[in-house]
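Hi F.,

I've been meaning to write this up properly since the lab meeting, where we talked about keeping a consistent format for the predictions we share between groups. The idea is simple: the sequence comes first, exactly as it goes in, then the structure tokens exactly as they come out, then a line or two of notes. No screenshots and no reformatting. I'm using this chain as the first example so we have something concrete to point to.
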Amino acid sequence: MQRPAVKAFFDESSHTFSYVVWDPATMKAAVLDSVLDYDAAAGRIRHASADALIAFVQSERLVVEWVIDTHVHADHLSAAPYVQARLGGRLGIGEHIRTVQDTFGKLFNAGDEFRRDGSQFDHLFSDGERYMVGSIEATAIHTPGHTPACMTHLVGDAAFVGDTLFMPDYGTARCDFPGGDAGCLYRSIQRIFALPDDTRIFVCHDYKPAGRDVFAHETSVAAERQNNIHVRGGVDEAEFVAMRTQRDATLSMPQLILPAVQVNMRAGQLPPAEDNGVRYLKIPLDAI
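Output, unedited:
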């Protein structure tokens, strides 16, 4: 398998890893899961996280071909359009974004002006679709369960799994958001486990569980299959679903789920300004 270069960027406030992955032969790159800084108390947008990523791309003289979100994130706002405006590339997400847009368009009462066909993005990836990052072949793999639209992007030997898997000592993604399904997540993980043992796995989040002193973002298919505390080899679907359902019932909603989803379902674009020139985010009460 071809081996791309990978640079990780960590936003500790949301525990999110963003990535630049590139082909060293052509210096062509993709950006995955970029972060837009959001101060919830003040309602202010900042760009420090995205600017650090952009500065790296520019310093390395990389040419961005893709700006990808692995799914509609519930814990941070996407900086995809901001990154695209400065670096170029095509905005991409999985084609099941339409399902997420329909679900959350209703939740936020977004109205007819909010398109639910995924057209805010430049490209909607289908399951098994192959594309290129420079001269390196990439494959989009539909891995739903956390959300209906989650995709794993396999770029050469590097799999960017979004929220589907965490580091082996932390486990797997929650499945209690609208459209989530623990059985579906289990089956999605088995698709990842079917990749070659030495496939590198890059996770989107890490929470430094007890016993580990540093944040981590890279593991392997073999390590996940052997050691993942939720879904290692020998754990069957019924056992996983029971564990995941019980665990999810104890979890609070992510602090930024309501602002994040209504921005990210629009491909990272903020809601349009109202007649006073101010943009507003909605907070539906007692709805999730």
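Notes:
The mean pLDDT is 96.
The first helix runs from residue 48 to 59.

If this format works for you, I'll send the rest the same way.

G.
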